Amino acid sequence: MQTKTYDQETVKKFNRFKMQSLLGVFIGYMAYYIVRNNFIFSTPYLKEEMNLSATEIGLLSSCMLITYGLSKGFMSVLADKSNPRYFMATGLILCILINIAMGFSTSFYLFVGLVVLLGLCQGMGVGPSIITVGHWFSRSERGRASTSWNVSHNIGGGLVAPIVGAAMAFLGTEHWRIAAYIVPCIVALICVVLVLLLVKRRPVEEGLPTVDEISHEESVTEKVLKKSDDRPKDMSAWKIFYQYVFKNENSWYLVGIDIFTYMVRFGMITWIPLYLLTVKGLTRQEMGVSFMLFEWAAIPSTLVAGYLVDKFFKGRVMMLPFVCLIVVFLCVFGYMQSDSVFAITIFATITGCLIYIPQSMVAVQAMEVIPSFALGSAVGLRGLMSYLVGSSMGTTLFGYVVDHFGWDSGFYLIMVGALLCMTFCFLSHRGVQKIYGKTSVPEV
Fold it and tell me: What is residue 82's DSSP assignment?
């Protein structure tokens, strides 16, 4: 472990750069969602103007989800060998250009192609963000840093409605293409400038010591490099992925957590409208409240989780998600069994409040078990599997089970997913203990 003491000016510069970088990737990732979720608000107008069916609108949404999952995997691997600032900014600029083209497109098939391209470019946002947090924040800070960044997508998705709504009110619905596509692009373009100004390269590329050296904390990166003669700069992106992610059992434990977290998350949020309206008999207003609280409850809980992990669960990151999943398991059962509108809303809110915690903590745990130079590759594998497998189990598999065995069976499937997620949390926790020893709590 490094024991060298650095001068005050170096420490101040390091701390300034890391906070600027965190703010930069927060703004950047928020902007990615501004030029992604705006598509949702344009669908009523697309449906009317292009005379699209609900199936065709669904196809567009599916294309976005599938290509985003594939891109998240591929682009995050490339991010390991790239400058985070330029990689994130380039992806955001491409998303802006595609949105402008969508704003002027009148052909359904052209629109499908543009949605596919948008999904591919959207995958360029997460890798640089995780890499930035991993390189600039120490083990005792990553909980707060990672969860602070993680809420950016909630905020970005939430900002779309007022941005597009205000543009519609000012320009009129006859100019819905400008309001839904061009105006969000202007906001995102401002964010591109901020990304380029704020996000820094890796500390050593900025002439600074590594985060392990300046914090005097031993990390998995140091342990790996001590055992290997290979240097990251001499390795290809594929070799980094294969050697330190694909062959790493701890990486697959994280994949398992992500898969079953996404299964529970999508299994709940996708079916809230249909289930509450048709089975539980709630009004549209009551259903809307439950839906909103499921999503927005995640923001304060994710931030609190980051603080708790750094202060009370240092080196035991997965213990907090493990406890949260026990509560989620019980709440899904209560949500399924209750007939009271108040109880259903409470159970949905608590589930939404807690199910995002395993998702956000996986990013923190990855920095415990994956070398910093392979974090993008690890994000890529998890992103690919979580969207292609996890979200499919929460949507397609859930729907199949409901059609053949009833709604209760669908929610029992979700409860099994929560149990399996708990299992992988435990396995990941055990993996950290093997790396750092039974006493895996970093000194502060």
Answer: S
